[in-house]
Design goal:
The complex is a heterodimer of chains A (501) and B (639).
Chain A lengths: L2 H18 L4 H30 L7 E9 L4 E7 L1 H20 L7 H20 L3 H22 L4 H28 L12 H4 L6 H18 L8 H8 L2 H26 L1 H27 L4 H22 L2 H32 L10 H4 L1 H14 L6 H14 L4 H11 L1 H16 L17 H19 L2 H21 L3
Antiparallel strand pairs in A: 1-2
Helix pairs in contact in A: 1-2, 1-4, 2-3, 2-4, 3-4, 3-10, 3-13, 3-19, 4-5, 4-10, 5-6, 5-10, 6-8, 6-9, 8-10, 8-11, 9-12, 10-11, 10-12, 10-13, 11-12, 11-17, 11-18, 12-13, 12-16, 12-18, 13-15, 13-16, 13-19, 13-20, 15-18, 16-19
Chain B lengths: L8 H16 L5 H29 L10 E10 L5 E8 L1 H24 L6 H20 L3 H19 L6 H32 L4 H5 L4 H4 L5 E2 L2 E2 H16 L8 H4 L5 H10 L4 H8 L1 H7 L1 H22 L5 H21 L9 H31 L15 H15 L5 H16 L1 H26 L15 H16 L5 H4 L13 H22 L5 H8 L1 H8 L4 H47 L7 H23 L1
Antiparallel strand pairs in B: 1-2, 3-4
Helix pairs in contact in B: 1-2, 1-4, 2-3, 2-4, 3-4, 3-11, 3-16, 3-20, 4-5, 5-6, 6-9, 9-12, 9-14, 11-15, 11-16, 12-15, 13-14, 14-15, 14-19, 15-16, 15-18, 15-19, 16-17, 16-18, 16-20, 17-19, 17-20, 18-19, 18-22, 19-22
The chains are: A mainly alpha (501), B mainly alpha (639).
Chain lengths: 501, 639
């Protein structure tokens, strides 16, 4: 058994264990244990990865394992990681771990809830370790489908509508994506006799330009739907608003990252020429996402909607940076994914905890919570500061890497767009501070809120895990940035070799 | 070479203190937290003094110039091969001077707060925030590169936000903190864009490389033009925008008066002595570029400074809240410093304005902190901010009275107090460079003396007000800092800045120019005289004057309606005309389109689902009808 497959096997074993349990109260313990183990494995993986690199291993992917799965179509179960996927795996295990504790007190159908949640996580882990497009797509679908059940059953508000909308829109994205992936597959071999889904092998050939022009937009948009690319982002506000806490955390925290990661790893890495040619279209769309999402967030009244629009803005920045196609900006995109994943999971976790106490998410109905629930409120402020890019927390590192990187683009058009995108830091500050001021500060407006209990132990575990990670990246970004940057190097080399600009 | 590597502890110690008090503060006794914070700051004050002594008097000079010393440096974040953010400590005359200013004032404010904040809820939180602020401010001045400066620039912004909003249950304080953060954030956007343009063209963030007068950055600066100005000029104007925000220059000054909602020691530390001069420091730090490569940008600095100083001085004459008078006074004095930089040249006697600006920054820190702390003692005694509710306080608060008077005389520029010397140098520099700006500043000197003594007379003399309970002098923890700062205000004027802090690090000769000094003292005395007549005793003159100049008075009293303009932009334009339409558009156009696709699909499928009803009879009917029709058709066609 190789180490990477463990990331799929552990969740599956956890699910099996939950299925066998009779006592529903033990379900959460088992889940916490399983995902704790997963977190530990992620730490081990980081250690193994770094020591392998330190020992001078310069392969593009490490721990590569390849099993032939379906011979006639040359489909493999192939896994392997580089610094980027290791970072994404660590992010996922942190968010899942925190998510388990945030849903400690799920009331109905405990067993089924945790099974679906962990199944979703399995899909995400599988996606990040895959280097075979088919396996990757398989895990991608595995991650998306439990979402329908999680929102439709355990959600709130117009949950059936939201669940349906989210699933249909993501499936629409998948459809585009599947066409794109098949297009890549059928062009993966110049003489058409040994077609392959393996990313590393495809990267050794050059897909003909007409094919790139056709399949790049499909693949990019397919992943873009999940990455909340304007105008395909509208599943996000409704979906998040209806989803239960842990699902929002996982969805915004890691699932939306599948979009950014895929867009970078598949669409741009395999089809760099078309990406360069068409990037201006998508640069405009993503810039709209960034600014428009931020303005949209200012006018919202529901905490989750605010965060959903904020995610549109922040994820737009990821795709924006990826399209800049240089070392710094793309490294920034990965850091932004991690940073946004942690911080948005933190936000949604906290919103769930506040909602559990006040039974409302309308900011106008709340006020002065700082005095009543200081721990949660302080954490909310920290999350807010991270989101508006305060130095010392992860958001700053990510955004600055993106901005500086994007501004190195040799063409003036891209630099001007960068300046427009940079202005989002002000808009972000406006909506974050507006919420903090109304929600937490000022006098306590509702007398029913005067005796709310502060965070319980499991909530503290969830929140502290995330805040610790956000602060760690913010205070000492060099190791993460170096780990990602080193792995980015061969990718950029390939892109530049095909696009001398 | 002297070893300065220990200086890294000067910013680090307050940071550790912040972590300690922030994470474990609520478990400690409040008094212990306060003492820990103060003790830590005392320690770094001593360290800073030692550093200043060693730097100015024992370190080696090269060609008669003070050297820029990198005491420590490491790469914090690598962007590209050439662009990387370092964290480190840069020692040069201005950063060492700022070390002394910041630690001195911060230490005084810490001691003062032990008395002032006693018994307040959140005492340990207050000291944690103060430590955070000290850390950020020290990091800012010691920065080795412009990005490090930007990082700490943001951090002082957030500490200011936290401290203004310290009384977080008071809606006005919350509003003020939010406003301060957003306005300065907007200005910081300019700073960031400036950094991006600058680094794109010079490929470095490093201050020493950037500001080397012989270096490539300055040499190539005249290059590529955009709208008639060079790229370097653009980037320097953008960078200056950050300074305008932080230093509360027009038009980004609107946050500063509201920031007075914070506790008074905070106003003294952040909004008078240290953070608000960061903009001046920024221009001084980049000065060789401004002077040698972007003279247009330097002119912008001069005019913004001059206008702000006049604008603020006029408003200060009409305000009644003592802290707001002081806030506008701060803005006006910082305008002086900006102007001095703006009219300065680089090197030798040409750099008189640069030296004067730094000199005034130093003396202003002492006397303005003193004024604010004095105001705090007054507010502490009478529980009000409004001068209209005060009067005759000299009997009750003797120590505060004397120290406050010293500070007022200092800011009015009466010799031999420190303000006289530094202001005189600024006026001299302006005189030799631009007569119009000189005239403006000369008038502002008179206004300054007037509004300060208006404040002084109405608080300490004026009508005998009846207080609900008798005001009493502040405790020793509060009066001792007042006395120390008063001594500082008196003696710092004699520091020979022309030998220590100059634009190129070399000594130059400067003398008191009597032709400028005498008239400036006279106009100061005139201002005091008018204030004496109007406010020494209760008199009807102020009201009559206000009635005569009704409209101009009303405009000035309402701060020229800048706040209303700000509210109009944020509430109306941004919220009502941008954000809400965007939200509406998203729901009713983008999302509605997606829903429409779904509805259409659903509708169509309802229509066509009848085709597959599963009823054999129906299929048979359709099949037979179709077959017959086709047969008829074929027969008809073939015939």
């Amino acid at each position: 058994m190789d180490i990477l497959s463990l990331f799929v096997v552990i969740p599956v074993l956890t699910i099996t264990a939950i299925l066998l349990l009779k006592d529903t109260r033990q379900v959460r313990l088992v889940s916490a244990f399983g995902m704790g183990l997963q977190l530990l494995m992620a730490a081990v993986l980081v250690y193994l990865y770094l020591s392998a690199r330190h020992a001078g291993n310069i392969d593009e992917m490490l721990f590569v394992k390849d099993y032939l799965w379906f011979k006639s179509l040359n489909i493999h179960y192939a896994v392997g990681v580089d610094g980027i996927s290791v970072a994404m795996i660590s992010l996922t295990s942190l968010v899942v771990f925190a998510g388990i504790f945030a849903s400690w007190e799920v009331e109905i159908l405990k067993k089924e809830f945790f099974i679906s949640l962990i199944l979703l996580a399995t899909g995400v882990f599988g996606f990040f370790i895959s280097i075979d497009l088919f396996t990757m797509f398989l895990f991608y679908e595995l991650a998306v489908i439990p979402m329908y059940l999680l929102i439709g059953i355990w959600g709130s508000g117009p949950k059936e509508y939201s669940a349906m909308k989210l699933t249909l829109m993501l499936m629409g994205g998948s459809a585009l994506l599947l066409v794109g992936l098949l297009g890549i597959y059928f062009n993966s071999s110049p003489d058409k006799n040994q077609l392959t889904f393996n990313i590393l092998e495809i990267s050794k050939v050059v897909i003909p330009l007409p094919a790139q022009r056709m399949f790049f937009p499909l693949t990019f948009m397919g992943f873009g739907v999940l990455g909340a690319l304007f105008p395909f982002h509208t599943w996000s506000p409704d979906g998040h608003a209806s989803a239960p806490t842990a699902v929002s955390m996982l969805h915004a925290g890691v699932l939306m990252k599948l979009g950014g990661y895929g867009a970078f790893r598949v669409a741009i890495f395999l089809m760099p020429e078309a990406a360069h040619e068409l990037s201006w279209i998508f640069i405009i769309l993503t810039s709209i996402s960034v600014i428009y999402g931020a303005f949209g967030a200012i006018a919202q009244k529901d905490l989750k909607y605010i965060n959903a629009y904020s995610s549109v803005s922040h994820c737009g920045l990821v795709l924006f940076a990826v399209l800049m196609m240089n070392q710094t900006a793309m490294t920034g995109a990965i850091i932004q994914m991690i940073s946004h994943g942690l911080m948005t999971a933190l936000f949604f976790g906290l919103i769930g905890m506040i909602y559990g106490r006040t039974h409302t998410r309308m900011i106008s109905e709340m006020g002065g919570l700082m005095k009543v629930i200081p721990f949660l409120s302080v954490c909310y402020v920290i999350a807010g500061l991270a989101s508006l890019g305060l130095p010392g927390l992860s958001g700053f590192v990510a955004e600055m890497t993106i901005f500086v990187g994007a501004f190195q683009h040799p063409e003036l058009f891209y630099r001007i767009v960068t300046i427009i995108v940079v202005s989002s830091i002000v808009i972000t500050a406006v909506y974050i501070l507006r919420v903090i001021a109304i929600l937490l500060l000022g006098p306590t407006t509702n007398e029913h809120f005067e005796h709310l209990p502060d965070a319980k132990w499991f909530e503290k575990i969830s929140v502290i895990t995330l805040i610790g990670s956000v602060a760690a990246i913010g205070l000492a970004p060099f190791w993460l940035s170096t780990m990602i940057g080193t792995s980015m190097h061969p990718i950029i080399e390939r892109i530049l070799a095909l696009n001398p600009f | 070479m002297i070893n300065f590597s220990y200086t890294i502890w000067i910013p680090l110690l307050p940071f550790l203190m912040f972590l300690l008090l922030g994470l474990a503060g609520h478990k400690l006794k409040p008094k212990l937290s306060g003492l820990l914070g103060t003790g830590g700051l005392g320690l770094i004050t001593i360290l800073s003094y030692i550093t200043a002594y060693r730097y100015f008097f024992t370190s080696e000079k090269v060609n008669g110039a003070y050297q820029k010393i990198i005491a420590s440096n490491f790469t914090w974040l690598q962007f590209t091969d050439k662009l990387h953010i370092d964290m480190g400590v840069l020692l040069d005359p201005i950063s060492v001077m700022m070390l002394v200013v910041i630690t001195t004032v911060s230490f005084m404010v810490h001691i003062y707060s032990l008395g002032y904040m006693k018994g307040e809820k959140g005492f340990e939180r207050f000291f944690a925030f103060l430590s955070l602020f000290s850390f950020s401010m020290l990091g800012l001045v010691l920065a080795t590169n412009i990005f490090q400066m930007y990082i700490f620039w943001e951090l002082v912004g957030v500490s200011s936000f936290l401290l203004i909003g310290f009384y977080y249950q008071k809606p006005s304080a919350v509003r003020a903190s939010k406003k301060a953060f957003i306005v300065t954030r907007f200005a910081d956007l300019g700073f960031l864009i400036g950094i991006l343009i600058l680094s794109f063209n010079t490929k470095t963030f490093d201050f020493i490389t950037l500001t080397d007068p012989m270096g490539t950055a300055i040499a190539q600066g005249g290059g590529i033009a955009f709208l008639g100005l060079s790229v370097m000029t653009w980037s320097m104007i953008f960078v200056f925008m950050g300074g305008v925000g932080k230093s509360a220059m027009f038009p980004f000054h609107i946050w500063l008066p509201d920031a007075m909602e914070g506790p008074t020691p905070v106003s003294a530390l952040i909004h008078a002595a240290t953070m608000v001069v960061a903009g001046v420091y920024l221009v001084a730090r980049m000065f060789p570029i401004y002077a040698l490569s972007a003279p247009v940008a330097l002119n912008v600095v001069a005019y913004v400074g001059a206008f702000s100083s006049l604008f603020a001085a006029v408003i200060a004459c009409t305000q009644t809240d003592i802290k707001r008078v002081l806030a506008y006074s701060t803005m006006s004095q910082i305008g002086y410093m900006m102007l001095a930089l703006g009219v300065s040249g680089y090197g030798g006697h040409e750099g008189l304005g640069y030296m004067a600006s730094m000199f005034h920054l130093f003396t202003h820190a002492m006397f303005k902190a003193l004024l604010f702390l004095g105001a705090g003692a007054i507010i502490h005694a009478v529980h009000s901010n409004y001068m209209t509710e005060m009067g005759g306080l000299r009997k009750y608060l003797p120590i505060t009275h004397i120290t406050f008077l010293i500070a007022c005389l200092t800011i009015a520029g009466i010799p031999p107090l420190s303000g006289f010397f530094s202001k005189d140098e600024i006026l001299a520099a302006a005189f030799h460079s631009n007569k119009i700006l000189f005239a403006v500043e000369y008038a502002v000197a008179g206004l300054t003396a007037f509004y300060m003594f208006r404040l002084y007379f109405s608080v300490f003399w004026g009508k005998d007000t009846h207080y609900s309970h008798e005001p009493h002098e502040a405790p020793a923890t509060m009066t001792i800092p007042l006395i120390i700062l008063a001594v500082g205000s008196v003696v710092t004027g004699f520091i020979p800045f022309n030998k220590l802090v100059t634009s190129d690090g070399k000594i130059f000769e400067s003398e008191l120019e009597l032709m400028i000094a005498i008239p400036s003292v006279l106009i100061g005395l005139l201002g005091i005289g008018i204030a004496y007549v109007m406010y020494r005793k209760e008199s009807a003159i102020p009201d009559k004057l206000a009635a005569t100049f009704k409209y101009s008075y009303k405009w000035a009293y309402n701060k020229f309606y800048m706040d209303e303009l700000y509210l109009f932009i944020t509430k109306k334009i941004i919220f009502r005309y941008i954000a809400e339409p965007v939200a509406w558009f998203d729901r009713h156009v983008v999302d509605a389109t997606m829903n429409a696709i779904a509805t259409v699909t659903q509708g169509v499928s309802y229509r066509i689902r009848g085709f597959q009803s599963g009823q054999l009879q129906k299929y048979a009917v359709v099949f037979i009808t179709g077959a017959i029709m086709l047969s008829i058709l074929f027969i008809y066609l073939w015939k």
